[in-house]
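Figure S4 source data
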Amino acid sequence: MPRKIPLREQIRDAGGFYNWFNATLIRLAGPPQLGEGKGTPCSRCGEYKADHVERDGLLHCPV
């Protein structure tokens, strides 16, 4: 039966607390999502482009 490694040794082997915590968090929660989220803001109104309405092939700012 393999020996259980103490937490102190696990943290030291990982290169410090931050690296150990980050690896543990990724293992539990999964990798981060990639992408821009809601997108880029509009240059005219400042709202996200995802919130705009498309009419006649053009984006119109939300009211």
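Figure S5 source data
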Amino acid sequence: MTVDANVDTGAGADAGTDAGTEVPGPAGMPLLGSLLDLKSDSLGTYLRAQHQHGDLVRITAGPPGMRAELYCVFSPAGAQQVLASDAARFRKDNRFYQEVRESFGNGLLTSQDEDYLRQRRLVQPLFTRRRVDGYAEAIAAETRSVVDAWGDALDGVIDVSDEMAHLALRAVARILFGTDVEATADVVTECFPIITEYVLRRGYSPANIPRHWPTPGNRRAAAALDELYGVCDRIIAERRGGAAETGAGTEAGAGTGAPGEDLLTLLAAAKSSDDGEFDASELRDQVLIFLLAGHETTATSLCFALHLLSLHPEQQDRARAEVSRVLGDRTPEAADLERLPYLTQVLKEAMRLYPAAPVIGRKAVAATRIGEHTVPAGADVILAPWVTHRHPAYWPDPDRFDPERFTPEAEAGRPRYAWFPFGGGPRACIGQHFSMLESVIALAMILRAYEFEAVDTEIPVGAGITLRTTGPARCRIRRLDTP
């Protein structure tokens, strides 16, 4: 990752004995600090903290003896330092990542050190632009199926949060599993909410009982995990058996076969002389992470793009006109990403206002100076795209929906980390081109077929593993006389 030349990152120097000035922050309640504020509205709490105290804020939460101290970094320069220039000083060692790791495995999202580097080297050849572009047809097919079903919508009203989650899950399941899409999509729909709620409850609790204790919550989560693991293991065994019969194998960095092969087959065949290959458990870990990150993030972007366009008919009409001009009646393909700049700007602005990863956590492993202050070794560090994407120094009138913020000229005038929905640095999201490809193709086909008007003008949200709606996101739809 190239560091912006005009950004002073604090040079990653050791803090030494100079602790800088005291890090400011809200006083909170005498016994609980800001715990109740964080539990009721964490995103609003972080936003108020930046407005009142600046770009590095210390928030305390919890009772004495179990109190957490969060060092919240809100500036683009600080985000660049944590994610890129000083990334080795900030690790995924906090309680939340440990809970994700124990439920969804040690895949690319949660692994570290040599485990992560080995996984990344094996997986990277499967996420080249050429390979990802080969999934455009599958994305379009799943979008067409969902859009066609809307003709039966009751009273012409749909919940775009539910519908985009359904679409994104089917698309990623089809790409991962091919013909096994139906069974996997149904199991994920049933089991993921149970598991994610369990992870969140444990990840943000100051103390947890052991997972193996037979409490109702532990038993329910264990049953959901068993069902999810069982489906994945069965399909992996079938793929491995097929690969053994045909003698298939893919040298990392070499060609990966026909574009129609599903991603699991390619993952099962991926190997190199230095890194070996994935065993069955490692394959399941990668599959679970791809299912989690691959559908929830794209679903969030599409949901809020449609919601925002439903509130702004002028921008909706402009995006639809571009789609009609570029595509006409034909099915969109990967090359159309470059031909639909305004639609891409709409999606980027939706991701600014509603980033799928609104909060990113790290653990500081060394005392590090950020701006005028020092983050101590062992501190829990919070980055908040939700806040940085609304930073008034970089985003005038930050709550206003304005796709013009993402013209090439406007983007060139901002620091690299004023907008980072896909993270950044050496651990930037490996699937960001896939997410943009899916989002542009799906949004183009949806806008060509339907007109949207908001029923719910405000959508409450909360920070889970990803950003999630906590209320309905309904739109009234009207079928257009186009394919």
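The radius of gyration is 23 Å. Residues 1-13, 246-260 have pLDDT under 50 and may be disordered.
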